């Protein structure tokens, strides 16, 4: 489709510049007038991520002048209370500098509707408020609903929206979208139920399932690295790759989230979503174009080819942190954390070996692991290459040569490292590993937006490229369900806070003649 002449950016000479038209993705994208309705504004996610992200977007000039932030919560709040909470949240957690002028503009368009999820009157008032905002603030009937609420509350909220026709594009005269936070369901069955419900209330294209890892710059860079370059793709397969390790480690414990976490555990909290999405981007085939649909087709194909280990006893390990030491401080064990039952068997660590049954990846193990209270916060994807088939050097010359590795550092120290052998200066032919590093901070002056900044903006624009679809979610549960069944009546293996997980996870790799990376 050709961009209309008027939308083209004119050069100084007044001629349209064909390289910079309305489709130019380097130009800032600004949503149409709209409201963002946040359910659960007092929760951790809203205060630490969402409200700050909205302020950051406003600060970067990426929100339309007719933008309204509408909070909904069970609070007996008077005028200005929600505004104060949002301001404090933005001040405490925003990425960009504080500007009073930005806040005053935003604050003029902040609204609050009190009520609980089972209160019909409250939802009627919310529907009326949205209606009035079309007149008073020119939102043209456009609204996105962010469900920042416990998964158990999804059905009630969705049914209220159905009852009040808030989800109805036609009735509203604009667009209506919904944002659902992970975990999407508890297993395949509940995920299907939830998906059916959401898709019956909203038009399926208007449902945005958030996996915030996809909003990270370094995660999007996996696609750039693989498909914008010639260098990597020819070796990105089982001919050259020996194994892949995907790690998401955190040094923090569960903090104040016992209620959520003890019901969920590491496999459902992180493995089923964040790690599976990283695996999908690493293993997928090249999409025919960079569009939401084309990328989702490839991700779904590869996720359907992921298989759980046949030998779970050996290749599926879950653990729980015990008390220990981290960064010189004593850390409590999981069972001693506030509100965690003293006999909880919930896992805070999960590691598994998966296979991707495609021609490209046949025989290449994908080792995935995630855990809390590990020595440090790090997320990375490491491709370890096969050894050279023949080394014309003596064994002692290459004693310190390991596998070539390509490591995508998702966070922190965002960047990419390539590890390969090099001659040590001197009169002998000694070969040792060296590393070549790309660091975002050194190559780019602009700092990366927060994942939620990017994703909230995409929802308001209606760009679904970075959001998993139903099929992806269900394909992941198909792999995770058998793992959960296997673990259901087992005690988790214990590891001390500050260690890299339980010994059983090391044994798992040792039995394959490999070792976990120590990032
Ligand atoms: C969330 C999990 O999805 O991701 C949390 O629920 C986890 O348990 C968090 O701490 C980690 O996110 P990030 O972006 O800090 O790696």
Structure summary:
With 519 residues, the protein is α/β, with parallel strands linked by helices. It is 34% helix and 21% strand.
Describe the protein:
The protein has 519 residues and is α/β, with parallel strands linked by helices. It has 2 domains: 34-181, 3-Layer(aba) Sandwich (Rossmann fold); 215-449 and 468-510, Dihydrodipicolinate Reductase, domain 2 (2-Layer Sandwich), CATH 3.30.360.10. It is built from 15 helices and 18 strands. The strands form 3 sheets. Strands 7, 8, 9, 12, 13, 14, 15, 16, 17 and 18 form a 10-stranded mixed beta sheet that branches. Helix 7 (188-201) packs antiparallel against helix 14 and helix 9 crosses helix 14. Residues 1-21 have low confidence and may be disordered. It binds 6-O-phosphono-beta-D-glucopyranose. 6-O-phosphono-beta-D-glucopyranose (BG6) binds next to helix 9.
């Amino acid at each position: 489709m050709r961009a209309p002449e008027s939308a083209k950016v004119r050069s100084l000479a007044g001629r349209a510049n064909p390289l910079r038209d309305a489709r130019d993705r380097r130009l800032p994208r600004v949503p149409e007038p709209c409201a963002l309705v946040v359910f659960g504004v007092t929760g951790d996610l809203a205060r630490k991520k969402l409200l700050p992200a909205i302020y950051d977007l406003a600060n970067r000039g990426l929100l339309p002048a007719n933008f309204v932030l509408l909070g909904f919560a069970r609070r007996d709040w008077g005028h200005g209370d929600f505004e104060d909470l949002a301001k404090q949240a933005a001040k405490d957690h925003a990425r960009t500098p504080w500007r009073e002028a930005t806040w005053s503009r935003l604050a003029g368009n902040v609204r609050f509707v009190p009520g609980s999820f089972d209160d019909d009157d409250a939802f009627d008032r919310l529907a009326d408020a949205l209606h009035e905002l079309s007149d008073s603030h020119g939102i043209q009937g456009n609204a996105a609903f962010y469900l920042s609420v416990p998964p158990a509350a999804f059905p009630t909220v969705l049914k209220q929206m159905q009852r009040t026709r808030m989800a109805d594009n036609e009735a509203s005269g604009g667009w209506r979208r919904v944002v659902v936070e992970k975990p999407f369901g508890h297993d395949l069955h509940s995920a299907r139920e939830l998906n059916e419900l959401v898709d019956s209330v909203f038009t399926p294209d208007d449902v945005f399932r958030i996996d915030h890892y996809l909003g990270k710059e370094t995660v999007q860079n996996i696609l750039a690295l693989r498909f914008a370059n010639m260098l990597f793709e020819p070796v990105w397969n089982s001919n050259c790759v020996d194994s892949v390790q995907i790690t998401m480690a955190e040094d923090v414990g569960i903090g104040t989230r016992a209620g959520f976490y003890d019901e969920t555990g590491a496999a459902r909290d992180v493995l089923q979503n964040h790690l599976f999405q990283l695996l999908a981007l690493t293993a997928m085939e090249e999409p025919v174009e960079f569009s939401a649909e084309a990328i989702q087709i490839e991700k779904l194909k590869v996720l359907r080819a992921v298989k759980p280990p046949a030998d779970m006893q050996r290749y599926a390990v879950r653990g729980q942190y015990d008390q220990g030491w981290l960064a010189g401080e004593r850390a409590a064990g999981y069972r001693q954390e506030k509100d965690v039952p003293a006999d909880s068997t919930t896992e805070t660590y999960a590691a598994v070996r998966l296979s991707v049954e495609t021609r490209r990846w046949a025989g290449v193990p994908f080792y995935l692991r995630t855990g809390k209270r590990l020595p440090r916060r790090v997320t990375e994807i490491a491709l370890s290459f096969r050894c050279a088939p023949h080394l014309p050097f003596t064994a002692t010359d290459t004693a310190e040569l390991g596998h070539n590795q390509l490591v995508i550092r998702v966070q922190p120290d965002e960047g990419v490292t390539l590890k390969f052998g090099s001659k040590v200066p001197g009169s002998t032919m000694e070969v040792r590993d060296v590393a070549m590093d790309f660091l975002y901070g050194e190559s780019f002056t602009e700092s990366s937006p927060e994942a939620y900044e990017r994703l909230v903006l995409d929802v308001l624009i209606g760009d679904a490229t970075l959001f998993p679809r139903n099929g992806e979610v269900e394909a992941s549960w198909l792999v995770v369900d058998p793992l959960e069944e296997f673990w259901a009546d087992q005690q988790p293996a214990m590891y001390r806070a500050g260690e890299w997980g339980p010994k059983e996870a090391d044994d798992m790799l040792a039995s394959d003649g490999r070792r976990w990376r120590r990032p």
